[in-house]
Amino acid sequence: MNIERKDNRERKYGKYAIHNLSLYMLITFAVGYALEIIPATQKLVYWLQLEPGLILKGQVWRLFTWVLCTGGQDNIFWILISLYFYYSIGRTLEQVWGAYRYNVYIFSGLFYTVVGAFLMYGILSFIGYQDANIGGFFSTYYVCMSIFLAFAATFPEMEVMLMFILPIKVKVLGIVYVIMMVIPMIGGGLFVAIPIVASLFNFIIFFFTGRKRIGISRRQQQERVQFRAKMREAQSEPVKHKCAICGRTNVSNPELSFRFCSKCNGNYEYCEDHLFTHKHIE
Length: 282
Description:
This protein is mostly helical. It has helices at residues 2-13, 21-37, 52-56, 62-65, 76-97, 99-126, 141-154, 170-188, 190-209, 218-236; strands at residues 159-162, 166-169, 258-260, 269-271. The chain folds into two domains: 2-219, Rhomboid-like fold (Up-down Bundle), CATH 1.20.1540; 238-282, no CATH class. 57% of the residues lie in helices and 5% in strands.
């Protein structure tokens, strides 16, 4: 029932999905990294950050421009590696999940990050810090991390070359990354945990609700449901006829006819495909 409801949404809104979304994300992140590492544009980054207090005062562009804030990586080599890596796994997820589901996953991650920023601002305002600057806590770093975690959950047995040398399964890297995120949340308290959990909330929902079926198509999902229904029906129906040659029964193949052979020595029953072609048992 849940699958059918999701399929209805996909049929209705799938036409609005952005295809090759990973390419647009690659361009956005590249621009963001450039703004952060070029000295002449570094001061501009502040005007792009996700600051709920300033948004409420009219700077609504920050609701969108914060996606250019990537988290402060300044090593060009690692920037290029990261851009290529997230683009490649994003493309793979889009091909496997479909453009609509991949769009929902990415944009829900961005949405939950904005919600987390306003939640933190509300908590700070409640305890008396109305003018606190929290934009530096929120970036696309953990949104990108949610892409990798989704990839690890979808292809846990796939191997990647760590540092281009050591082969390691993606699920192991996923566990390591989760540990690396949990440790700062424990040490940094609520105001470190909120940005991380908010940015990864799309993955949390995915992991506990859809990871077992999001990697298969709608047709495969329907076939799986129909197959399980047939298996339940088969288990409740007794086996009355079984072919002595192929082993098919009236339960596994209800469309077949079964007959006993009068020329065989014993009670041997055959399906319609083997009734006239089998070797008689003497």
